Amino acid sequence: MAFHRRPKQPSRARVTVLTTAAAAAMALSSQAADAAPGEKPGKDEVKSRVDKLYEEAEQATEKFNGAKEKQEKLQKQISALQDSVARGQDELNELRDGIGGMATAQYRSGGLDPSLQLFLSADPDDYLDKAVTLDQLSGRQVESLKKIQAKQRELAQERAEATGKLEDLAATRTELGAKKREVQAKLAEAQKLLNSLTAAEKAALAAEQDRASRSSSARVDLGDDTSATGRAAAAFAAAKTRLGTPYVYGATGPSSFDCSGLTSWAYAQAGVSIPRTSESQTTIGTRIYSTSDLQVGDLVFFFNDLHHVGLYAGNGQILHAPRTGTVVRYESMSTIGGPFMFGVRV
């Protein structure tokens, strides 16, 4: 008979050692996996991430500005349509009163014409065709009915147009709210990152920002202002008075601005009305693709989606409202953070 030896069981001590070692290995592995995500970002990384968030916030800001501008236009159009409908209804009532007067006169002179009686209780659009065909109305009555018919059609068209614009307005308000929340979320995320810095790191970042503002202003040769002429010169002069004014999204001055808010305000001071958003401002003049052809006061646009605009200041510099956390200042076109696309001479 063959006997099978029972496998030797590990000792309790050995099991304990192996278990402890495995647990330690797992703990070390877990610590290694968690180290990177949990590590506090340094000042430079925070600045890079915050700058990116501010850029995204500015993109959303221009969309917000566009929706706000559209809302204001729609409200004016709706108001004008509603006024027109009200006036048209008054005119229609007067025309109806005139037909009623004819009916009264006919009744007093010997009885109400059946055709006119039919009209007063039926739809004139349908009735007019029948009555004219039957030659049952006088020329004056036909003319009055035609006016009523035309006015009713006009009112129906205006009411339909107003209804469509009201629906468009509701959608625009929804878009406006969404863009506002998007901007606020980006800014809140950026602020959360900034709050994670130490006091010393925050002071260092503030000092960098201050040096950037002072050095960019110092690099501009104000003698180049002479290349500005006419309204462009006046707009640039107005913008210069706002140096140091804080950037605030959606703001159009005079105490705070976003990028397109500054340019539209500056040209307004020169007596020129230009659109509110950077994208719309690209459509209002002659495009200039070479930086060597730019003149002081020209609008200059950056990034592929054209979400940033400033005023050319000469010497490869622009005067602009950069982004949240900054002020209106001069800056080199090479440090904007996005490519120069083209200029526009208003």
Observed structural traits:
346 residues; alpha+beta; six-stranded antiparallel beta sheet; 9 helices; 62% helix; disordered N terminus
Description:
- The protein has 346 residues and is an alpha+beta fold.
- It contains nine helices and six strands; from the N terminus they run H-H-H-H-H-H-H-H-H-E-E-E-E-E-E.
- A six-stranded antiparallel beta sheet has the order 1-6-2-3-4-5.
- Helix 2 packs antiparallel against helix 5 (139-195), helix 4 runs antiparallel to helix 5 and helix 7 (230-240) packs across helix 8 (259-269).
- The longest helix is centred in the N-terminal third of the chain and has 66 residues, at 43-108.
- The radius of gyration is 36 Å and the shape is elongated.
- The N and C termini lie far apart (109 Å).
Quaternary state of this entry equals single chain
Helix content bin: 55-70%
- By DSSP, the count of extended strands is 6
Give the integer mean of the pLDDT values: 78
Strand content: 5-15%
Main sheet overview = 6 strands, antiparallel
First-last Cα distance: 109 Å
What's the topology here?
Layout: H1 12-38, H2 43-108, H3 114-120, H4 124-133, H5 139-195, H6 199-219, H7 230-240, H8 259-269, H9 278-281, E1 286-288, E2 299-302, E3 308-314, E4 317-320, E5 329-332, E6 340-345
Antiparallel strand pairs: 1-6, 2-3, 2-6, 3-4, 4-5
Helix pairs in contact: 2-5, 3-4, 4-5, 7-8
